[in-house]
Amino acid sequence: MADKPNFMADLQLPGARLDWGVRDRWAKNFMEGTVSGMRTAIFDYFYDVRVDQSTHSTVAVFASTQRRVPAFDLRRKLLLQPYSNLVELSAPEFSKHFALIGADHDWLRRMFDRQVIDLILSTYARQHFQISGEGPWLAFTISQTRLKPEKWRGFLQDMSQIAIAVFARARAEDTAAA
Predict the structure, then answer these.
(1) How does pLDDT run across 108-153, given as a tens digit for each residue?
(2) What is the C-alpha to C-alpha distance for residues 23 and 7, in angstroms, rounded to an integer?
(3) What is the pLDDT of residues 40-82, one digit of tens each?
(4) How many domains is the chain partitioned into structurally?
(5) How far is the C-alpha of 152 from the C-alpha of 150, rounded, in Å?
(6) Containing structural domain, residue 39
(7) Which of 127, 116, 24, 13 is nearest to 71 (CA)?
(8) Which CA distances in Å does 152 have to 48, 61, 92, 112, 149?
(9) What is the CB neighbour count within 10 angstroms for residue 135?
(10) CA separation for the pair 21, 92 (Å, rounded)
(11) How far from the centroid of its chain's Cα atoms is residue 34's Cα?
């Protein structure tokens, strides 16, 4: 689908998880389907940062019908950036480069174990990579970069492996309530 104007509502994706640009968000090159039993979408995400300037990212989102994750953001750590709710992980080399932010520290430490950390480091860790999660959704973003369409398959495959691993460690929910 070329354009998807109501993608946030159609996906029931919490808006706070795609919080860059609070107005005029839109998706292009939107594709939706199922990967390993998860509802999945990949698209180019555009948003206004100022009245006269917009930017873009490539985003892959995955939803689980049976698992829920606490609200969190994992992004590249910026020097001199103060972080509230920073989760300390027992992986100093990972924590040196990434900030895991969320209120449920214990659960996030269990979700981001050595296997998940290794999966993240083996993929797009050198780029402006970000993962956000809340409830049934995980959103993977290559910030301020649009991947070329020929790279989408690899990006989707890599991110689905991380999503599977994270959801395997997430809280199980009653599927009737989901």
Answers:
(1) 999 999 999 998 988 765 567 789 999 899 999 887 667 788 888 8
(2) 14
(3) 988 887 766 566 656 677 889 999 989 999 999 998 887 667 7
(4) 1
(5) 6
(6) 3-172
(7) 13
(8) 23, 13, 31, 25, 5
(9) 19
(10) 32
(11) 17
Number of H helices and E strands in the chain, helices first, is 5, 9
Residue 141: inside a domain: yes
3-class secondary-structure state, position 33 = strand
What Å distances lie between residue 126 and 36, 97, 174, CA to CA? 26, 10, 37
Q: Which of 39, 42, 43, 14 has the alpha carbon at shortest distance from 27?
A: 43
* Whole-angstrom Cα Rg for the chain: 16
Dihedral sign computed on CA atoms, order 161, 165, 171, 172: positive
Distance CA 137, CA 60 (A): 10
Q: Phi and psi of 90, rounded to 5°? A: -90, 45
- On whether residue 178 sits in a domain, the answer given is no
In a domain, 56, yes or no: yes
Residue 20 lies in a domain: yes
Cα distances from 170 to residues 42, 72, 85, in angstroms, run 22, 12, 19
Which of 6, 84, 85, 92 lies closest to 43 in space, CA to CA?
6
